[in-house]
Amino acid sequence: MSHQVLARKWRPRRFDQLVGQEHVVRALSNALSTGRLHHAYLFTGTRGVGKTTLARILAKCLNCEPGVTAEPCGQCAACREIDSGRFVDLIELDAASNTGVDNMREILENAMYAPTAGRYKVYIIDEVHMLSKNAFNAMLKTLEEPPGHVIFILATTDPQKVPVTVLSRCLQFNLKQMPPGHVAGHLKNVLEAEAVPFEPGALGLLARAAAGSMRDALSLTDQAIAYGSGAIKEDDTRAMLGVIDQAYLLPVLEALADQDGARVLREADELAARGFSFDAALQDLAGLLHQIALAQTVPEAVSEDAPERERLFDLGRRLDPETVQLFYQIATLGRRDLEWAPDEYAGFSMTLLRMLAFAPGEPLPPGARQSGAGGNPAAATSARPQPAPPPPPRPGAPAPAPAPSPKPPTNPKSEPSPLGGEGRERVEQAQPAASCARLPLCGPMAHPSLRSGPRLRRVLRPPGWSPTPPPLGGRGLIRIGAPSPNPSPAWCASSPCTANWSPATRTPCACACPRSTSPC
Questions:
Q1: Cα 309 from chain centre
Q2: N or C: which terminus of the chain has fewer CB atoms within 10 Å of its end residue's CB?
Q3: Alpha-carbon distance 122 to 138, whole Å?
């Protein structure tokens, strides 16, 4: 096959060709220049950021024929063979397909032998987190103290699955995702070298769709060239990616700013008629709200060549920052819940209606707004709808009973405890419908309605209570409904209500002494 894809053709072969990984390049270059080499490296990062590419460049720096250097010549036999994938002392292992301990044991046995053609024998283990537990355990000793001619380079997209015993034996480098500006700049250089015509707006779309992966960006560029018959145009790229133009989303935000529900639904219907993806629409809508928030807080952060820049700043003046933040949150949550909606259109339109419903500062009705503007609150209050008056009574019908006066609400926690003591719980009881306002908790003086069934109440001891058991053997938990077997006025011997009590009349006890509550 004569054609080679851009991702393979434009794979970096030197450190200075890498994009967006300057922190790793600087550390490795200094280590190679000073001779402070580690025996095991671990490269982590998402897909397409250069983990395997960096490992191959490091292998080329170690085995370049002029010597260990941070700038390999690229002309010697070792450099050419590494670039073509034919170097005998560079062993690349895919851990996803070689997960067992037997595969690892074979590699470790061959590692003891000296390199054949190069200075170092380099082992590149890609997706190392896919190794089994036994395979990790088998490589620990060799990974900690390998032969002097062996260099291990591990690469993974999920370092959390790598055992900490392996992590502690490696020098770890975290490769960052590439920002869209760096990706677009690299795509521009590639397309100019390939003599492919392009539009700058299309490169920005490809860079954002790549989500920080250079390999994905180059693969999408190949697809865009095929879609546009040898040229990359913005409209064709937008149609290929399913990206919605801001010219279709800005009217939605303008209708939301005007609180015009009918116009909002018309714009949603227009998006549905054009066949756009509503998931992409909510994603781009959140991106527009992010740009508006930047225009409100940090105007210089908005790029000068941003599309529809003036309309973004106009929306930033019409919407307050709180509303922008609210709309952004609703858009992100609506995109998350889109899969649970009855259909995508319902989920998208419901998200827009939610923005209308929860928009702060909703205007009052016209009559109330005019009255309030004149500074007459009474007139504004009169503009609100009043309840209809009750219908007149029928002739001969009895007069309705007067409504009972409302009782002031009571807070049980604010009432003082009948047992005394600051901060103590109040013993709650169901008060019967009786004229007596104070009823005892239990015993022969209890109201008959309180003795209808067994109930449990907690009695807290008041201040000054002694552990001496009461005459009838009381406990902390009392049982209501069982009269005292030996009623006696000795309950309230120290209280003023002794003379008023008798078993026949069951006159309530009005005192709060300890002995009046403990015999239960």
A1: 30
A2: N
A3: 18
Helix (H) or strand (E) run with residue 151 in it: strand 150-156
Q: How many whole angstroms separate alpha carbon 244 and alpha carbon 277?
A: 8
Taking CA atoms, 406 is separated from 50, 76, 403, in Å, by 76, 99, 9
- CB neighbour class for 71 (10 Å; exposed up to 12, middle 13-18, buried from 19): middle
**What angle separates helix 200-210 from helix 180-194, to the nearest 10 degrees?**
130
Burial state string for 99-135 with b = 16 or more CB within 10 A and e = fewer than 16:
bebebbeebbeebeeebeebbbbbbbbbbbbbbeeeb
**CA 193 from centroid of its chain's CA atoms:** 42
Question: Distance from CA of residue 243 to its chain's centroid?
Answer: 25
Q: What number of CA atoms fall less than 13 Å from residue 454's CA on the CB side?
A: 4
Q: What pLDDT score was predicted for residue 425? A: 41
Mapped onto helix, strand or coil, the DSSP state of residue 92 is strand
pLDDT of residue 438: 45
Within 10 Å of residue 323's Cβ, how many Cβ atoms?
Answer: 19
What is d(CA 115, CA 148) in angstroms, rounded to the nearest whole number? 11
d(C-alpha 416, C-alpha 423), whole Å = 9
Q: What is the DSSP letter of 471?
A: T
**Order of strands across the sheet with 121-126?**
90-94, 121-126, 150-156, 40-44, 171-174
Question: pTM of this prediction?
Answer: 0.61
Q: What is the mean pLDDT of each run of 10 residues along the chain (520 residues)?
A: 83 90 93 91 92 93 91 91 91 87 89 90 93 91 91 93 92 91 92 92 89 91 92 88 80 92 92 86 92 91 79 91 94 93 93 89 47 42 49 58 55 45 42 43 46 44 52 44 45 46 50 45
Give helix then strand counts, H and E, for the chain.
19, 7
What pLDDT score was predicted for residue 292?
93
Tell me the two tokens of residue 466: 């002694």
Which residue from 332, 235, 234 is spatially nearest to 283, judged by alpha carbons? Answer: 332
Task: Give the SS3 label for residue 458.
Answer: strand
Name the H helices within 298-357. 309-318, 321-336, 344-357
Q: What is the pLDDT of residue 188?
A: 93
The tokens for 471 are 């005459």
Q: What is the pLDDT of residue 103?
A: 87
CB contact at 8 A, 316 and 296 = yes
Q: How far apart are CA 75 and CA 77, in angstroms?
A: 7
| Bridge partners of residue 42, in order along the sequence | 154, 172
8 A C-beta contact, residue 266 and residue 327: no
**Which residues in 6-41 are b (16+ Cβ under 10 Å) and which e?**
bbeebbbbbbeebbbbeebbeebbebbeeeebebbb
* Two tokens, residue 291: 């740009």
Alpha-carbon gap, residue 354 to 252, rounded angstroms? 13
